[in-house]
Write a structure and sequence with these properties.
- The protein has 280 residues and is of the alpha/beta class.
- It contains 12 helices and 6 strands.
- It has a 6-stranded parallel sheet, with helices on both faces.
- The chain is globular.
- The two termini are 21 Å apart.
- The relative contact order is 0.16.
Length: 280
């Protein structure tokens, strides 16, 4: 497409295929690029770290060198957190933010799903995380792993385009030949946990963000409760919150039409501020 630069940033364990259902529609309004972060999709780590801090630095360089210096960032889950970090630490590179069920600290007095908490606690334990990763792949294989992930992230996984499911399975099978995938996943997961467990530092980061921001969240997200998104929206009343009813962690896959419509509304409403930042 053409227009303002837009970079789509996937979540933990994800890849560019997570945006297949919405990429072409978004390209009606912007020059859209979906990237694979190091250690995910088709991008190897080549010995570099796959932590969210390393990927924040890489995303900043990518925007500068590939996207013309600045871009609108659309980030899901881990990608949302990395996009937040980028907007805070390199504000001149970020014209706008679309945060899609971003990884967030728990709301004050709120709790995360106990099953999700147990899984991430396992990921954080040396040795245990490695066993969990290797055991899951051995037990389920690529197709089973992908389908389990979609069942976990969606309220109704049958809403996901079968072409997206097939592409995700094919990419997962391709990645079985790539060394270091488990290590990259665990490095990223552990750095996410360490970041969301520091609410004070997170709050200071949020206060530094100046880019127009749309916050999109599903009501039935098991990984990041809606209460966490509402708490963030109450902290930043200048941001727009769009709540998707009966949708889980990946609205762009479960309701691609509604997701694109929400982004289009936000771009129209933020137009003057958004395009002024792009022009500058």
């Amino acid at each position: 497409g053409s227009g303002p630069a837009m970079v789509l940033v996937h979540g933990l364990g994800g890849a560019h295929v997570n945006w297949m259902s919405v990429g072409e529609r978004l390209a009606r309004h912007a020059r859209v690029v979906a990237i694979d972060l190091p250690g995910f999709g088709r991008t190897p780590t080549e010995g570099d770290s796959a932590s969210i801090h390393a990927n924040r630095a890489l995303l900043t360089r990518f925007i500068e060198r590939v996207m013309g210096g600045s871009a609108v960032l659309v980030g899901n889950s881990m990608g949302g957190l990395i996009s937040l970090m980028t907007a805070s630490e390199a504000p001149e590179r970020v014209n706008g933010l679309v945060l899609v069920n971003p990884a967030l600290p728990a709301a004050p007095g709120g709790f995360f799903d106990l099953g999700v908490a147990a899984i991430f606690a396992g990921y954080c334990l040396p040795g245990v995380g490695e066993l969990l990763m290797s055991g899951r792949k051995a037990l389920l294989g690529s197709e089973g792993s992908v389908k389990q992930m979609l069942e976990f992230c969606c309220v109704d996984a049958t809403k996901v385009d079968p072409e997206v499911v097939a592409a995700t399975i094919a990419l997962s099978q391709e990645r079985t030949k790539t060394a270091g995938g488990n290590a990259a996943f665990l490095s990223a997961a552990r750095s996410i946990v360490m970041t969301v467990l520091q609410p004070g530092a997170f709050a200071r980061m949020i206060e530094r963000i100046t880019a127009p921001t749309l916050l999109v969240h599903g009501t039935h997200d098991r990984l990041v409760p809606l209460a966490a998104a509402r708490a963030l929206a109450s902290r930043r009343s200048d941001w727009t919150l769009e709540v998707f009813e009966n949708i889980g962690h990946v609205p762009q896959l479960e309701d691609p039409v509604g997701f694109v419509a929400a982004v289009e509304r936000w771009m129209r409403n933020s137009g003057e501020a958004l395009y002024a930042r792009t022009a500058s």
